[in-house]
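Progress against Task 2.4 (sequence-to-structure conversion) is shown through the following example record, which the project officer requested during the mid-term review.
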Amino acid sequence: MGDNASLDWLPSKSWNPWELGGRLNPYVYGRLRRDFEDGLGLYASSKDRKSQRSLASMARRMDDAILKRIREEADKMKRADLEAF
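Structure tokens generated for the chain above:
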């Protein structure tokens, strides 16, 4: 950072909490899932890879359930926000 105070880094538009939750959470969960699944080939034995694929499948289903709940809560927040105006 330079010596002078700067507001150039501030975004021109701020997001509502329901917008942020609807976009950020799926990105983070998806990124973590892809990183985990992409690393499965690094396991030495096929037995370990098969076990990890099974765990990845369970994690994907759990992530989907969590993201569904997050979407539902974000929709509630959005409706409440729009009704307030």
